[in-house]
Amino acid sequence: MSKKKCQVCRGSGKEIISEKACPDCKGMGSTKIVLSSYSSGDASDGCKTCKGTGKLTKAKKCSVCNGKGEILVCDSCGKQITESEITPGFGQICQECKDSPIVFVLKPPCSSRTVKVGTYYHATVKNFKDFGVFAELYSGIDGLIRNKNLKGLKRSDKGKKIIVYVSGKTRDGKLELTPVELKDYRHGVQRESMERMKISSISRKTEKKQVLIQGKVSQIRKTSGPISYNFVDESGSISGAAFIKPTEENPYQDITIDDIVEVYGVVNTHRDVLQIEISDMVVAGDEEKKVILSKIEKALEQKSRPKDTPFLIKSPILESMKTDMHKLAKMIRRAIFDGTPILLRHHADTDGITSAVAIEHAIIPLLLAEQPEGVGYRIKRSPSKSPFWDYIDVTKDVDYALQDAIKFGDKLPLAILIDLGSSSESLTSIKKAQIFGINVAVLDHHFPEKIVKQTVSLHVNPYFYEGDYNLCSGMLGVELARIINPDVSDKIDYLAAIAGTADRVEGSPLEQYKKIAKKKGLDDELLRKIALAIDYEQYFLRFADGKNIIDSIIGIDNLKSESHLELVDLLYTAAKEAIDDQINICQAHLKEEELSDGVILGRIDVEKYAKRFEFPPPGKTTGGIHDILVKKNPDKGVITLGLGPDFIVLRSKGVLINFPKIIKSLKKKLPNAGIDGGGHEVVGSLKFIEGMNEEVVQALIKALSKLESNLHSEEKE
Ligand code: MN
């Protein structure tokens, strides 16, 4: 006989008809007004009319349970039944279940205690004995069909699926079964009812225990062993493993990413990390789904919101970027907490590398706390040779993302473009990634184009706030990293000064960041050395992130230790020698001329007069030559062009030019030259088709001459 607490009166047997505040004590429950926060505790103060409750209630006998506080329920379907419905010998079953009985499948967690007398179960014929045959309802739970009840079951039926009726159960849980033939029946699942557990409550203390969690599937990875899942609820996330025999069909194959599921299983540890060994998993009902989803969404929203972290430096521009910086930090935090992989696509120069490294170091500890085994594939840092999202790179990125989604059940990543992505050169790549479902945001200090801002989810760039390239990507990355994870601040704060030094920016932010670096013992010389050492090493790393090597050069874990300084010195010296060697050769072939308005124009053919495919690459070579020209002409504007067969690198100082604009006008003038390019206002590069080399160079020089006279007229004003 099953009885259940009446849910309407909550077991009280009374149903409240009306409730109002006690007129004598005005709902206070006391006749004295206590002014101090300490109550006198004197019972005589209590209002007699309402017995101190402050409420007057009228109640009647609960109509659902007839005042008993509990109800009778059908053993089969759990619906309420009346005593008159109970037929002797039929168990406590409602009429509907008699007409079309429910045949149950036992699901974990379950034991013989779960099995109810008078109901039907699916079972498998097992071992024949002298006195009858055993049938198994669930692995380890069986019952006896006595010889007199065999109803034609033969030894050859071993392994056959049958339906049994539970006719009796002994005190120690032994089941008496009768095989039945049912033509018309309904399906049911029966398991021990369990309280749902929040994921955050799972700990070493709950190890080996049966638990039920409800959450969202954030990942499904098929491994050579079990299928590995990751579940998220409003309190946290945990992984689960489903062991499926090779001969067995995957019972969870219909469950996909983002499904809301109920997971039954046992807590254990795998490689020292807590996980759930899944014994059963079902998609939650529609109502439950809604509740769980809204709980998860609310918690995720709250957890993703970054703390208010003040910037390291005083900068009005940075201050005005705060809202967007927080938005970007929130986006990244959300990805960490909801199981979205993060792709950091960054420019492969020191500025881009330090920026991405800072962000990477902010993300990893949070990921470790969230999904330790996921660190290997949930964050990826990818250096990019070009200062834009190259179509080759995005194709690779999208291809890998889709492969991982199919092979491992990963979500599609959030792509953050760092120190690149602001120009329309990246537009097709961005759109392509978006078409495939990848969310794209940009953190950059290169001259931005509005069309990019209109296309990406978020475009953070100082140019949108009356700032410029002097707030470089490394600085932005360090500040963003600190917003994402304030704990990491001390570990990465000096990277901003390395970045600024490498990108040769000027102004108050760099000075302030340098002060921070100086406190850690990094003077200008060491900043320059580390900056060049990173550039040098990345040249050989090519497309690899070289995480451990780069971390070592930056000195993330051993800043200024003997081994750190030794490594920096070695790489710096090698880089310096290579550059000096190259510059010496180039200098002999440098063409210098003075433009009509006194600006020096240096030209070096980096294709003919520089070592090819060796460090330093053409951009850096041009930069080196440019430095020499600037030194030689301290009070003059200087423009240096590094000329290749199908490209030009431009460096300038003391000249007001907008290189992206020049490129635009060149494109118009020479529509058949296939011109493409970008960069900052004063440095950059352009590509074109080799056959138009002469025309492009001439048009560029002409455009440069024009702009310089503009500058001079402005200066005179
Ligand atoms: Mn940069």
Structural summary, described in words:
The chain has a six-stranded mixed sheet with strand order 22-23-24-25-27-26, with helices on both faces. The protein has a five-stranded mixed beta barrel with strand order 6-7-8-10-9. It contains 19 helices and 27 strands. The chain starts with a strand and ends with a helix. The chain is α/β, with parallel strands linked by helices. Manganese (II) ion is lined by residues 351-352, 419, 445, 472-473, 503.
Salient structural properties:
disordered C terminus; binds manganese (II) ion; 5-stranded mixed barrel; alpha/beta; 34% helix; single chain; 717 residues; 19 helices
- Main beta-sheet strand count, sense and barrel state: 6 strands, mixed
The stretches of 5 or more residues where confidence is low (pLDDT under 50) are 36-41, 709-717
Query: Which value, in Å, is the CA radius of gyration?
Result: 37 Å
- How much of the sequence lies in strands comes to 15-25%
The pLDDT mean sits at: 89
- The global form is elongated
Strand order, sheet with most strands: 22-23-24-25-27-26
Structural category: alpha/beta
Bound ligands, each once = manganese (II) ion
Number of strands: 27
- DSSP helix fraction: 25-40%
Number of helices: 19
Q: What is the distance, rounded to the nearest whole angstrom, between the alpha carbons of the first and last residues?
A: 100 Å
